[in-house]
Amino acid sequence: MARPKFLPDNFTLCLVGTVILASLFPVHGQAATGFNWLTNVAVGLLFFLHGAKLSREAIIAGATHWRLHLVVLLSTFVVFPLLGLALKPVLSPLVTPALYAGVLFLCTLPSTVQSSIAFTSIARGNVPAAVCSASASSLIGIFVTPALVSLIVTNQSASGGSAWHTVWNIVLQLLVPFVAGQLLRPVIGRWIERNKGVLRFVDQGSILLVVFGAFAEAVNEGLWHHIPLTALGGLLVVNAVLLALALGITMFTSKKLGFSRADQITIIFCGSKKSLAAGVPMAKVIFASNAVGAVVLPLMLFHQIQLMVCAALAQRWGARDMRAERAASAGDESRAGASERTATAVRR
After folding, report:
1. Model pTM greater than 0.85?
2. Distance CA 316, CA 293 (A)
């Protein structure tokens, strides 16, 4: 039986189910402490496996395209935060202060890795550059995101400590496992390549664990009593506006700067997306536990919107380029046939 087109993907359904489960059966006391320990282990394992998977050759192959990477990083860590601040007077009335703090946190996050590369490939963009840009964004975000949060997220009740304390926690929980994975890549890299399902399971499983723990804690603090349905509708509008502006700015800038079409596609997909895989663990480290649920809610919604929109764009651009190549090939064959017929007529 074919899957209905209107039905979201399995991971989205799991996210929704996790939020519902955490809302109905939130953990308390010792159970919450044990669950938090389990989540920390899963997040550390996630970044360890990502470190072991990341190819140094792919990074070197794309690292020389510095102009493209600079545009992507500026879009990710400068344009996005400025948009979040500039739009605050207009869009913040649509949501609660806690939700807009989550929107600002979203603006500070690095780009995605897997989906940015996948969409760039589908749209026939510069895949090696996408690998380098997305990977560099994730690594730089470990240091840049907490610093940006301390600058632009003014909701002090959501802050989990000083910027340096946050950076140190992120280094211990995220960077150290990542570096350990890189160092052990010669030993376990081939095994991970052969068993990509393991990384996917840990990737999605760790996100679900963090989401469950975050929402369970938030529900214990009265999350759903503080967020009306109108604010959730407003959050949809805020995220849609933010993504539309990011896509428009990256399209316009990459074209005006004279990048090739393949590079433009890479800039658009890497410079307009935000990472759920990196954002949820970072939120757990940066923010107080009772605020994480409201903070990650905008990111979860933005993640789904960006996937749907970028998937449609990638398929459209990829199909258009394929049609153009077929037309050019048909034209070459037609010209070759005409030349052959002319040569035959001359010989006669």
Report:
1. no
2. 35
Phi first, then psi: what are they for 159, rounded to 5°? Answer: -75, 140
Tell me the residue length of the chain.
348
- Name the residue among 42, 44, 38 with its Cα closest to residue 181: 44
- Model confidence over 176-208: pLDDT tens digits? 887 888 888 888 888 877 877 777 777 677 767
Cα angle 43-108-98, degrees, rounded to a multiple of 5:
85
Is the dihedral angle over the CA atoms 109, 111, 112, 113 positive or is it negative?
A: negative
CATH placement of domain 10-347 = 1.20.1530.20
Assigned token pair, 217: 């804690």
Q: What angle do CA 112, 118, 124 make, to 5 degrees?
A: 125
Could you tell me the residue ranges of all domains in the chain?
10-347
For a pLDDT cut of 90, what percent of the chain falls above it? 23
Place of tokens 């849609």: 240
Whole-angstrom distance, CA of residue 199 vs CA of residue 52: 10
- Residue 15 to residues 35, 92, 95, 159, Cα–Cα distance (Å): 17, 25, 21, 25
Model confidence at 158, pLDDT cuts 50, 70, 90, reads very low
CA distance 334 to 301: 50
